[in-house]
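yo, RNA ligase 1 is done. seq:
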Amino acid sequence: MRRLGSVQQKIPCVFLTDVMEEQSRKRDCQQFQVVATENVNPVALQANIHSALATEKLDGTCCYVTVYKGQPYLWARLDRRPNKQTEKRFKKYQHSHKSCKGFTWNIEEDFKPVPETWIPAHGVKHHSGRPVPDEHGHIPGWVPVERDNKQYCWHSSVVDYNVGLALVLRPRRDNEDMLEITSVPLAELQEQTLELIGTNVNGNPYGLGSKKQPVHCLVTHGSVPIRNPPPVDFQQLCSWFHENPDGRVEGIVWHCSDGTLIKVHRHHLGLKWPEANTCLGNKPTAIRVDAYGSTELFTSFVALNGHCFSRLQDIHFEL
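structure:
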């Protein structure tokens, strides 16, 4: 499979969007809703989306693997955001101008502090050597996941830096209808982005684990293809999400041949998420973890090595 684009920036919607003055279906604190029109985004057409690879959009938190302290490390997504006073000023400007163009930022004073280890994401624009915010007022970036940082304890559970391994969920090479959780060298994941999914991430839409026995894993972006994807057409996409069993996904991310990423989310189309029975959560899953690690999760998966579950969401450690 060809190397796919990594998720470093906000991904544009496949359709042009409108902003509606109503409560967001995706974010409780957001008093507006971004909805898709039926017009295909010119960015998608320019990237030849009709020949792009359609993959499942995963509902977790974004991660990145790159070097830290001389070895491949997992990094967590951390966007630099405006402080409260600046955010109020920014939103007022947006509302009155119907755009953020022309808004003036003071990079040193307008943003909340971030750890010294923070780095900006690839593609972030710079001015006078400093990263500048995108149209949403954020500066996308990353922080390394260190073992002693409780804020990222679920990130830490899926990596073992002592042996250089990560717990990864992926389709089996010999049967794409089946998944496997396996240990993968972090060096093989270098410069890729992945999604952390599991019990304590984003409300656990895939039904993984339990409070007593949490289950988490990484999924490389673009690794779960959509079988027989629908055409890039508003009505046909709505029907596919609503009626097709393969449409029980959060959305679609198209990986275009020039590296451009394009997405559509169910909420763009006015459809609910999560679904009761997700496509991913219902796939049969094999455990192939035979390398011992120092984390509790690695140890639990080693005990299940060679076992197959009828559904991903059926994984449990008491056999």
